[in-house]
Design a protein that fits this description.
With 242 residues, the chain is α/β, with parallel strands linked by helices. It is built from 7 helices and 8 strands; from the N terminus they run H-H-E-H-E-H-H-E-E-E-H-E-E-H-E.
Length: 242
């Protein structure tokens, strides 16, 4: 949405900006597909960075280890924080602009539009989830295809288990983003006991679907005592506190 807004209102500014994207090598395939669509639609190629010294998941595992066996803070550093810092150094820009919003997580409740000490602008800080999907629907912004599915089951499944394979749910294509579906369409017929949807996409091993009414960040960093990856909260080295 940020790129779409910039293209609509400040195209010259967007042209002079560096758009940074990090491929952690653990992203959902649909995330990479969506990023490609955004770059094509708005004519803005991102500066992509991957973990240092690797280009594939197999290479990542060989150099750094399996994501499930690594300390979560160290995984975030090598897969996100360090590549992001490397990208910023290459861009050589004075101001960082993010798409962070106050309604995404507890740490962002007091998110300022301008963080002077960090030279960071958060122009979407006051946007809500509803603002985002309204803009997406009105302006045809590309969205992650993973939003187009419902996961129906008879009983709740613990969030810490929803990343596992062969769960007792049925993955149902909706043919449209879940927020465009009615409650009846989400539940199906006969109505499912509970329905989950993906509201947000991070790494595959730490992202799970949630109930439609829950915060998008509820499904992020499951099994971990945090709600941030460290890109905006840590700027030192592996093992450093968030």
């Amino acid at each position: 949405v940020f790129v779409a807004l910039m293209r609509e209102h400040f195209p010259e500014v967007l042209s002079g900006m560096n758009l940074v994207a990090i491929d952690t090598l653990h992203l959902f395939p649909t995330t990479l597909e969506c990023a490609k669509l955004v770059q094509e639609k708005y004519g803005k190629q991102a500066l992509w960075k991957k973990p240092d010294g690797v280009n594939t998941l197999d290479e990542f595992v060989a150099k750094y280890g399996d994501c499930e066996e690594m300390d979560s803070a160290d995984f975030d550093f090598v897969s996100k924080v360090e590549p992001f810092q490397r990208a910023l150094a290459e861009c050589q820009k004075d101001i960082l602009i993010t798409g962070r919003r106050m309604d995404q997580a507890a740490q962002r409740i007091t998110l300022d539009l301008w963080e002077d000490g960090k030279r960071t602008l958060n122009p979407m800080a006051n946007f809500s989830w509803q603002d985002i999907i309204d803009y997406v629907d009105t302006h045809g912004v590309p969205v992650n295809e993973g939003h187009n599915f419902a996961y129906r089951c008879d009983a709740p499944i613990e969030a810490t288990s929803r990343h596992l394979p062969n769960l007792p749910w049925t993955k149902v294509p909706l043919g449209k983003p879940f927020w465009q579906a009615s409650a009846e369409e989400l539940r199906g017929s006969p109505p499912a006991g509970i329905t989950y949807v993906f509201k947000s996409f991070g790494d595959m091993h730490t992202t799970v679907p949630v109930e439609p009414h829950e915060s998008e960040r509820t499904g992020r960093f499951v099994r971990q005592a945090k709600t941030e990856c460290g890109i905006h909260t840590r700027t030192t080295s592996a093992g450093a506190p968030h």
